[in-house]
Amino acid sequence: MSVFKRNGVGNYYIQFNYNGKTYCKSSKTTNKRTAERMERDWREELHRIEELGERPRITFKDALQCYATSKQNTGSSEYARHNLNAIESRMDATVYLDELRDWDLNKFKSLRESEGMAPQTIKHNLQAIRSTVAWAKDHGYRVPNLEFPRVRLQKHRLRYLSFDEEARLLADLDPKRKRPYRPDFEYRPESENRMYQDNYDLVVLLLDTGARYGEIANIKWSAINLESGTINLWRPKVRNESIIYMTSRVKEILHRRSETKVSNEYLFTNQEGQPRGYQSKGIRAAFKRAGIEDFKIHDLRHTCATRLIRAGLSLYDIQAQLGHAQCSTTSIYTHLSHQDVSMRARDILDHLNRASSDGVA
Prior knowledge:
- There is one protein chain.
- By secondary structure, the chain is mainly alpha-helical.
- It folds into 3 domains: about 50 residues; about 80 residues; about 160 residues, Intergrase catalytic core (hpI Integrase, Chain A, Orthogonal Bundle), CATH 1.10.443.10.
- About 50% of the residues lie in helices and about 10% in strands.
- The chain contains 14 helices and 6 strands.
- It has a 3-stranded antiparallel β-sheet, covered by helices on one side.
- The protein is elongated.
- The mean pLDDT is about 85.
């Protein structure tokens, strides 16, 4: 019998032989007729695959999860997981992947827009679906031919901190700052002061290294060499490594933290002693209190790059400092480089014009 209950109880199981192979799985139902229909469908699918050469089917949910699993232990694993959650909670993931249609994608896009999601976020969501379809195709599954909706990205000016904004921000993050409805520094719980200190130290490290948030928030002590004043920075997003030399204030912070270690493994930790992860609420609140508008944590990285460009470093130098895998990524700073070139050209021309005028006189 190909449909049966184990020990006569529970869900029905389906088991049969086809072309010398044994197939067996739970029907996940106690209804025998439903289980028998599932068996017929399964046999027909095997016939189409084995005899007619059709590709097997996979549910949208399973394809999403397989794609996310394929990204484990890579720099984009968190990216894939966040997109997976956003997609599964807003689309019918129980359908077969090849049943997806263009209008499903357009409905998803409209829903995300109505939720107030940024165009870049929606674009990432749709790219995750596109990558899932590509994964399924590469692994031999039946896939739909989809036309993905276009998402227009808003053009924003490059945001970075002025030195005055930086001073206001660090003053607000100062652990010893008096805080409304909280005791003074000396009387606050040590864990609370450590949280404030972590936020302050993390912002300074991001400003002076130009690193991505996760590269510093999850860094290990083994990557820090206080004697040589260097940070051996592993960049999981682009899977490359850089040696960053510490500024004086970064070195001072790391020396202080080395003397009051909470963990011998990680520089910043959460309450369980594990890597800090993406805990940014306190820092984002400090932006608002300091009156710094339209600013994100990633803009601290832009701040570092902007200052280096204006100090005379080339785009190639900036690419090396930021750990960009491609020059095109660094090109967002091109206009700053051109602006400074134009200013230097003006000064040179003014000097030559004055010299020429003096010569004529």
